[in-house]
Design goal:
Blueprint: H1 3-21, H2 27-32, E1 38-45, E2 49-50, H3 54-64, E3 69-72, E4 79-80, E5 85-92, H4 93-123, E6 130-132, H5 142-151, E7 165-167, H6 169-175, H7 178-188, E8 195-199, H8 202-211, E9 215-219, H9 223-233, E10 238-242, H10 250-254, E11 260-262, H11 265-268, E12 275-284
Parallel strand pairs: 6-11, 7-8, 8-9, 9-10, 10-11
Antiparallel strand pairs: 1-5, 1-12, 2-4, 3-5
Length: about 290
């Protein structure tokens, strides 16, 4: 992650995560290690996958103690295998013990998302379809989870509500129809922003095309409906498919020639990648 992004955005969330885990003191660590001792511990991968979030992992420790050092054998986006030593972490043993769970929570979660994303991206090879994430992220984790999608080879849809125009079903209902919603967005939003419209049937597809939508999202349609919709759009707008898209059914959708598929499963359903800190040893007995 870019150092500027880390300082401006990520640090506040990492601090909150640390405060959640250490609201007063780390009783266990203070009991067994009351004074400074320098130590080192190995970061070990326990299953095959894609690693992501190494800078976040390290930042947990350096926020606790700036003198903590991490030496890596891999970088974000790399394929990792069970048994690999990914890094060595060196520093105050009290910091290594107190930051362990928070640092691993980030690394396991982000590596799991990157791994799941990479598996789906591989299913798109040879097609024109690009994989995107959604805003279905864990509260307080969006900046990290969307980064992990990119590390896995996917792309990001809009980051938040300020980042782009996406007129969904309730926006359309509130405006009184697709055309009125698009016209209102066109009048309000800066001219540099694309306008995307979510549609659920062919009538709405036709209305979105006639209203001049830049991107038309085909939401929860059957394969047959999507095929008809893409033919109806006929290149007059970019196309996106969304709704219950997983790695199990994505190939059938890409065969239709859609430009994008967006999948909330990338962030809300990816299992963690099992990674541990092991073999801690004291390397400075005198302190």
């Amino acid at each position: 992650m870019n150092p500027v992004t880390m300082q401006l955005v990520a640090d506040k969330y990492i601090r909150l995560a640390l405060e959640e885990d250490i609201n007063c003191e780390d009783v266990s660590t203070n009991a067994v290690m009351p004074d400074y001792r320098k130590g080192e511990v190995q970061l070990i991968c326990k299953e095959d996958g894609i690693v992501a979030g190494l800078a976040i992992f390290e930042r947990v420790f350096t926020l606790l103690d700036k003198d903590t050092k991490v030496v890596y054998n891999v970088k974000d986006g790399d394929i990792v295998q069970k048994g690999m030593v990914l890094a060595m972490v060196t520093g105050d043993i009290r910091v290594l013990l107190s930051g362990e769970r928070t640092a691993l929570n980030y690394l396991q979660r982000l590596s799991g998302i990157a791994t799941y994303t990479r598996n789906v991206v591989q299913l798109l090879e040879g097609t024109k379809t690009k994989l995107l994430d959604t805003r279905k992220t864990t509260p307080g984790m969006r900046v990290f989870e969307k980064y992990a999608v990119r590390a896995g080879g996917g792309g990001n849809h809009r980051y938040n509500l300020s980042d782009g125009v996406l007129l969904k079903d309730n926006h359309i209902d509130a405006a009184g129809g697709v055309r009125k919603a698009v016209e209102a967005a066109r009048a309000y939003a800066p001219f540099v922003r694309k306008i995307e419209v979510e549609v659920e049937n062919l009538t709405m597809v036709q209305e979105a095309v006639e209203a001049g939508a830049d991107i038309i999202m085909l939401d929860n349609m059957s394969l047959e409906q999507m095929a008809e919709a893409i033919q109806l759009i006929d290149g007059r707008a970019e196309t996106e498919c969304s709704g219950n898209i997983t790695k199990e059914n994505i190939q059938k959708i890409t065969a239709l020639g859609v430009d994008y598929v967006s999948s909330g499963a990338l962030t809300h359903s990816a299992p963690i990648l099992d990674i541990s800190l092991k073999h801690l040893r004291v390397i400075d007995m005198e302190g």
